[in-house]
Structure formats: structure tokens, C-alpha cells
Amino acid sequence: MDAKIFRASMRTFREEMQRIDGMLKSMGTDRRLKALDREGALRLWGEIVKPRETMLRFSESRVVLAGDPQGKLRALFEYYVERNFATREYQEQILERGVRGWLKEARLLDQFHAGRVGNDEYHAQFPFIAGPDERPDKIIKPLNLDYADAARIIDHGGQWIVRVNALKKRDLLPAKVLFAVNGPEDSTSRGKARREVVGELESAGVLVSRYGTAQAVIEFAGT
To answer: Which of 33, 91, 131, 213 has its CA 20 to 30 A from that of 108?
Structure first.
């Protein structure tokens, strides 16, 4: 989706929520009024979440019993909006599933396996290795750099820069290594951090493609 369309949709939705917030308060939902128009509030809620062909859609309404409603609301927000369950490892597993699907469709998956590249002195785990672990022919590594702040992008990318350089220094890195990198490509500090990581990977001799360009991965795997 075009980022401008997404931002415009969210801005319009925020304005609509602010308008509805005022309507709900006028019905007594903030307890400033003596009477609560419960039926009116429920009708308005039903109007908000009913299925419609729009950019933003809602799942079915559900009910939760909580001793601390405000605390529960914060927990739900952290889970569904901030996605606190989505750890670094979880996100990279999602990227790996994507690459695995591309290779399978191209009938190239059988050439690859997950394993440890290196020796007893130094080694690193990779999800897609072609050839023997001790002397692989090529490596594909999906790398998630889609973090909320630039520092985490640099930290996580830096871990793989160190690993690549350590393997290369010991002549353990194959000539063909591709990193399929996910993350921001804009002019923000996050985008700058991603470009910094990509530049250092390329300086180490690694090919880098933008995650989502399946053809680049397939062509690399097939050559």
C-alpha cells in the first residue's frame, strides 16, 4: 500500500473517532451526566464496527471480564497495536517462511537446508544453506530491520555484520551470500539506519535485496 494512502486513511479514522468520542460523552459514557443512554451508546458502537467495504475494517465484537478495565485496555493495545508479542525471532521466522515459500514454488527448496556455517573457532546459524555446512556454496539470510527506533535497527544489523566479517576473516564465508532485508526505506532516522546496515553488509561482499522481491531471491538461488 502507498504510505500516503495509509496515513490519510488513519488521519481520517482518527478524526472520526474523535467525533464519536464526543457523541459517546454526550450520552453519559464518561459519567459526567447522571443518566447513561446505554442503548444509544450500543447502537453507535454497532454502527462503528459493522462490516463495510472500507480501507479499515473491524473484527467481530468480543467481551472480556476484567477487574482492572484500564489495565486490560492497555494490555490489549500493547498486543494488537504495538504487537509486543512480535519478538525479533518471531519476525524473522515470518520472513523465513516467506523465502521458503518462494523457493518451494520455484522448485529450489530441496537444494537448501538450515545449519551452522563455520568451525569450532567461530560459526553462525543460517536458515538457507546450499552445500555442506563446512564449505557451503551459497547462503540466503532474511534479515528483519523493521524496528520502531534506529538504535534497534543498528544493533540487530550490527550483529549480522559482525558474524559475516568474522566468517569472512576465517575464510569460512562462501562467495555467494544474499541477505533479503526488511525495513524502512524512507528519509527518517530508521531509514538511515537501515541504509547504514545494508552498506556495511555490501562492503563485506554480501548481496542485498529488498525483502519482498521474490524474483531476486529465486534468481540467486538458481544460479
So the answer is: 91
